[in-house]
Amino acid sequence: MAALKGNQPSLFKEVKTNFTPEVTYLQINKGHGRIEKRHVSICKNLDSIRPWPGLTTLIQVKSERQVFTHHVIEVTTETRYYISSLSLTAQEFAERIRGYWGVENKVHYVRDVTQGEDKSRIRTNPLPKIFTIARNFTLNLYRDQMFKNMAQAQRLCSFGLDTLKQLFRMK
To answer: Which of 171, 1, 161 is closest to 81 using CA atoms?
Structure first.
């Protein structure tokens, strides 16, 4: 399964223009002061789509997010498209897509935001690879110590070497 974005502009346009939902699955998640509704639709009719190796299913995800802040409800909507060689149900695609975002939130978001990887000015080889390994290593150490919040773990560990030694049972 692959997300369609600007990297395949003509295929994206064809899918967006010719997508006709055949089956739709509604997924609702509540938590963290928001309600998210996702309508995951699939289309197996590829008559108007250029041949693409292995393509069997088009997927459309219409998301609506309601965020409650200071007695105000802010609503945002988004439509995303995916292509797949799999023949799954709309519900199975919904679960796979949701699972992907779980990985995105647990790994990429933490590395980009909490660890500041995108802001890094390190460019000279082999330092980018070394720092990537170090960031991954620290995330694994935090998770091994049962931290759920990586920003909190990073703040706690930044108090000094004595805190790190105590936390990771080092001498």
So the answer is: 1
Residue 156 corresponds to which tokens in the numbers above? 């706690």
Rounded CA separation 44/90 (Å): 11
pLDDT greater than 90 at residue 56: yes
**Which amino acid does the sequence have at 139?**
L
Helix (H, G, I), strand (E, B) or coil at 40: strand
What's the whole-number average pLDDT of the chain?
86
- Which helix (H) or strand (E) element contains residue 53? none
Distance from C-alpha of 82 to C-alpha of 116, rounded to nearest angstrom: 29
For residue 80, give the nearest of 94, 98, 62 by alpha carbon: 62
Two tokens, residue 168: 């990771």
∠ CA 82-55-28, nearest 5°, is 30
CA 48 to chain centre: 29
User: What does pTM read for this prediction?
Assistant: 0.65
Tokens of 35: 């309600």
65: CB partners within 8 A, 6+ apart: 34, 35, 36, 75, 76, 77, 78
* pLDDT higher than 70, residue 106: no
How far apart (Å, rounded) are the C-alpha atoms in residues 118 and 140?
20
User: And the tokens for 17?
Assistant: 């223009």
